[in-house]
Design brief:
Length: about 270
């Protein structure tokens, strides 16, 4: 994939709206509402289905899956593993969000066990990607979770190669790699980190785009679209982040090629 243009991203978004993919989310309590609203604004259909008694049956007719380990408990871990196995067996894309991987033994083990189930895409911040790469044997451990996204590029590439997943490292600049090429996506707004679960909703956005395009193209397109919408939403919140989630949904709903071209940039990263 040489590049993804604003016109191509907008065209994928049009396909997404027409398809209205059903995206299952096993996600944390904080993220459920904003993730559902973001998916609806994009044109997808969200489902917050997490009970182990129904995830296998439900997984037969979803189009994509998000697994976010933000608020872990043993019953949810079992549901996540079954849902991931069901999606993989059915050839459905699924996205792993290894929230705070490396912070505790429980969540690091949960993330590495899920990684072994072959996610289509992994989306995390630099600290999460560094910790997951280290714990899975793809890269060394021990880098501070406050590292910038560029500090995790090598670990992200190693993780992509070892896992077979496309890896997205998000931060002030986002990076996406399939283990070979690395794409840098710039844009967004300073208010985005000040509103809870905005990153979790980004993972849901990636999953929605993954239902209409190959993983690398889908991830680059999703991050660029989200950065563009975030930039516009931030400008509509002059008094602070309180209304940011609503403005983000409005911006995603009205997203087009002109907004994407003006507010985000995708480049092939060259070290």
């Amino acid at each position: 994939m040489a590049r993804v243009t604003p016109d191509q991203i907008a065209a994928l978004h049009d396909v997404l709206r027409a398809k209205r993919p059903l995206v299952q989310n096993i996600t944390n309590y904080v993220a459920m509402t904003i993730s559902a609203n973001v998916l609806l604004a994009l044109g997808a259909s969200p489902a917050m289905v997490h009970s182990i008694e129904e995830v296998e049956e439900f997984g037969r007719f979803i189009d994509g899956l998000v697994i976010n380990i933000g608020t872990l408990q043993p019953a949810w871990i079992a549901s996540m593993q079954l849902a991931a196995s069901t999606a993989s067996a059915a050839g459905k894309p699924w996205v792993l969000d290894p929230v705070a991987c490396g912070a505790t033994t429980l969540r690091t083990r949960a993330a590495t066990d899920l990684l072994a189930l072959r996610p289509t895409i992994v989306r995390g911040n630099a600290g999460e990607i560094l910790a997951l790469a280290g714990a899975s044997g793809a890269a060394s451990r021990g880098v501070d979770s406050l590292a910038g996204s560029d500090a995790a590029i090598d670990a992200g590439r190693a993780l992509a190669r070892s896992s077979g997943a496309v890896v997205a490292i998000t931060g002030e600049t986002d990076y996406v790699t399939d283990g070979n090429d690395v794409f840098a996506i710039s844009g967004g707004h300073a208010l985005m980190p000040l509103s809870t679960a905005i990153g979790c909703a980004l993972t849901a956005t990636v999953a929605a785009f993954a239902t209409v395009a190959p993983p690398l193209e889908a991830t680059v397109a999703a991050l660029s679209a989200y950065a563009s919408a975030g930039s516009l939403a931030g400008e509509r919140c002059p008094n602070g982040p309180g209304h940011f989630p609503a403005e983000l949904c409005d911006a995603l709903h009205g997203l087009d090629a002109a907004v994407i071209a003006a507010r985000s940039r995708v480049e092939l990263h060259r070290p």
